[in-house]
Design brief:
By secondary structure, the protein is of the alpha+beta class. It has a domain at 20-330. The chain is 25% helix and 10% strand. It contains 16 helices and 14 strands. The chain has helices spanning 20-23, 42-45, 68-73, 89-102, 113-118, 155-158, 192-199, 205-213, 221-224, 234-238, 281-291, 318-330, 342-354, 399-403, 434-437, 473-483; strands spanning 55-59, 135-144, 147-152, 160-162, 168-170, 244-245, 256-257, 269-270, 276-277, 298-299, 302-303, 371-373, 389-390, 410-412. The chain has a three-stranded antiparallel β-sheet with strand order 1-2-3, with no helix packed on it. A three-stranded mixed β-sheet has the order 13-12-14, with no helix packed on it. Helix 4 crosses helix 12 (318-330) and helix 11 crosses helix 12 (318-330). Residues 4-11 have low confidence and may be disordered.
Length: 486
């Protein structure tokens, strides 16, 4: 739900997103190194112009409006976000919704005639999910100074929730694919290798993948082997489940779920392992910049990128990123239209309080916003995030937080607002429902995870978060009823 923000602003100019002072204490130190990841300076960041281009839908050719393709060829480049028309916080949020849904990733853009022809071939759309208007989720047309090119959605490609009615909710939690449609782009339109080699110039695709995940201070043999050969099909290895993804700095063997962004404003940190502070719209904008090219991949003395790669090659205009940040800050989780009877949810609330859930998932935000310890981490007393550290571990899988470049040693405490809509729970998305979360069988080695299966086969226990595993069936039913009211 988009909250209506009516606070008038004195000017339309967005704040300067890449700010040296704000960057000083933004990132959380890597636990194994005791240092924060490096960042480009503001001077380096603003040395290139910001991209701000409106994009257009790619339709199934048989559903394309009459004359659309010819009309598109006559268009001139227009801004995705026009700051001159913005006068209030409400305007920023509305512009941010458009930007979030329509922004394309510049590294994916191509003018290859073969790929453009494929994106207009009805035979390529056999298994592609179509929105009600006949357009697709993945590719977008982008009108540039050099003409129309093919691109791909950025934020909304992953942060999308499919609904039973056949529509989508951008920003909602991922985890369920639409029935009967397995693809988001036409068959044969794969822009990922192109994007990787543009992001890592000088590398072939395999080396670029290796560079995405290698941890020089604690090498994983499985990652190191990527330089030589692909050990699994790329789709299975890097998107192992509809709701999870192997992000840069993480690992294909320690994936993270695609988060529900409708609760991000209740957080103090971004990412499952709390890699960066979340102090408002500017930090969300800053993070969008970071994951889209403003990342030197520097960790103390360890340089992941080559000298030729270590420079800004892409940045979005500040108005685009700030608008997205304002939009995300305006979102809230939807209320369940079919909650349990009041008496049942009230009984569940008592279970929630009695079991101590309330100490971490503090009302009304249902999170304290703090960081819990990954197993094996004992942070120093003078840790710069000490005020936000809860010195206990809930025992979930520590690999992401301890053995990857996202390894802060922490997992953030998520908000439970809107948890009833989520189909992937825990940081790695291995749990697929509240019922599975509170099923004591999930910790057993013969359990089949409902979400991400992991790298070692279909059967494994899902460790950690033991709270609620010993409830009686009646108590569990009441607790789930309460959680589904949040």
């Amino acid at each position: 739900m988009l909250l209506l923000l009516a606070v008038c602003l004195p000017a339309a100019d967005p704040p300067r997103i890449w700010d040296d002072e704000a960057l000083k204490d933004w990132a959380t130190p890597v636990a194994a190194l005791g240092v924060r990841p490096g960042h480009y300076s503001a001077a380096e960041y603003y040395a290139i112009p910001g991209d701000n281009l409106k994009t257009y839908p790619v339709y199934h050719p048989n559903r394309e409006p009459k004359g659309y393709w010819e009309w598109l060829q006559k268009q001139r480049p227009e801004p995705l976000v026009d700051a001159s028309k913005i006068r209030s916080a409400r305007d920023w949020a509305a512009a941010g919704q458009r930007a979030f849904e329509d922004l394309d990733n510049v590294f994916f853009r191509t003018d290859d005639p073969k790929l453009i022809a494929r994106a207009r071939d009805p035979e390529a759309f056999k298994d592609v999910f179509l929105l009600p208007d006949g357009s697709i989720i993945g590719n977008r047309w982008v009108v540039t100074e050099k003409g129309v090119v093919l691109g791909e959605r950025e934020c909304a490609l992953c942060h999308v929730q499919f609904t039973p009615s056949g529509t989508v909710a951008f920003g909602g939690p991922a985890g369920v694919e639409p029935a009967g449609a397995t693809d988001r782009n036409p068959a044969g339109v794969n822009l990922v290798p192109l994007a990787y080699t543009r992001f890592f110039p000088g590398d072939n695709f395999l080396v670029a993948l290796w560079r995405s995940y290698t941890v020089p201070w604690n090498p994983d043999p499985r990652v190191e082997a990527l330089k030589e050969k692909m050990t699994h099909p790329p789709g299975a290895l890097f998107v192992g489940d509809p709701g999870t993804f192997a992000r840069f700095h993480g690992s294909p063997w320690a994936q993270t779920k695609v988060p529900d962004l409708r609760g991000i404003r209740y957080s103090r940190y971004i990412d499952a392992s709390g890699t960066h502070r979340m102090r408002g719209a500017e930090d969300l904008a800053r993070y969008a910049a970071f994951v889209n090219g403003a990342d030197p991949m520097t960790f103390g003395d360890h340089q992941i990128l080559t000298p030729a790669q270590r420079k800004i090659r892409l940045r979005y205009a500040d108005e685009v990123l700030y608008a997205i940040g304002m939009y995300l800050m305006s979102l809230d989780a939807p209320k369940n239209p079919n909650p349990a009877p009041d008496a049942r949810s009230a009984a569940g609330q008592k279970v929630f309080q009695r079991e101590g859930c309330i100490s971490c998932h503090v009302p009304p935000d249902y999170t304290s916003g703090k960081l819990t310890l990954a197993q094996g981490y004992n942070p120093p007393a003078d840790h710069p995030n000490a005020d936000d550290i809860v010195r206990l571990s809930v025992g979930t899988d520590p690999e992401l937080a301890m053995r990857t470049r996202k390894g802060t040693g922490f997992y953030k405490i998520p908000t439970l607002r809107g948890v009833w809509t989520r189909t992937r729970l825990l940081h790695d998305g291995s749990v697929a429902s509240l019922e599975e979360m509170f099923d004591p069988a999930r910790v057993q080695p013969d359990h089949v995870p409902g979400g991400w299966k992991g790298p070692a086969g279909d059967r494994r226990g899902i460790p950690g978060h033991p709270f609620g595993l010993k409830l009686t069936p009646e108590e569990k039913a009441a607790l789930l009823a309460f959680l589904r009211t949040l």
